[in-house]
Amino acid sequence: MNKTAVIYTCAHADPEVSNDRFSWLGDLIYDLKPDYVIDLGDGADMRSLNSYDTKYPTAIASQNYEKDINVYNDSQERIRHKFKKMKRKRPAFFGAEGNHENRIKKAVSYDPRLEGTKYGISFTHLQTKTWFDEYYEYKNSAPSVFTKDGVSYAHYIATGNYGTAMSGEHHAYSLIKKRHSSTTVGHSHRRNIYFKDDAFPNPSIGLVAGCFKGGQEGWAGQANLEWWKGVVIKRNINNGAYDPEFVSLDRLKTVYGTWQIILFRYN
After folding, report:
1. Pairing relation of β-strands 3-8 and 230-238?
2. What is residue 9's predicted lDDT score, i.e. its pLDDT?
3. Is the pLDDT score of 105 beyond 50?
């Protein structure tokens, strides 16, 4: 039986940005009722543990580990809330650790004194066992690669002996060239797709799934204009082949955000 899945990545839940988009995503998932949902990582921004703002006090002032954790868990609750409210069985959720979630592990490795589930920092604060049926953490200092219905998934696919994230103008094509099978990644925030319909024994699709960010990044400059924000619906998944549909964040807001505003006004 061919399956349906919703794929999103790089949501970067941030205390400084509204989490409304996660409610819209939850509504989409509830209406679509896919077989499963895949979060390809960087769902938590963890700005408080970044190593880039240490020289900029104005940037540090707004950072807070507890707020980072709370906004991430709120985002996950919003996605699943309608299923809980309506007492309906939710689809399976599969998640992957991205480099932003990995900041927690890096911080502990740099200074083990910081670790603590109650008063320190801990990867368990992300509650991945609560939110996901299966969660794929980093392996050998790189994102894990896992497979569902003939499609390989990872936060990113590494290239070279030092594990640098694959990227470039022909990113999706490079995924097929390296792995010789359907592969879907996130990380770059860009959208790219490549079809290898004559691949044997099954067609192969390389997909870079954009991002689900709610705001722009000051550090990224013009690169903000290159990022595609939304989710991908995969229909008729069978042995690595599927029919992709791109649903932009703006479209989600129009369908679900506007409807929520109307309901609020009349309640």
Report:
1. antiparallel
2. 98
3. yes
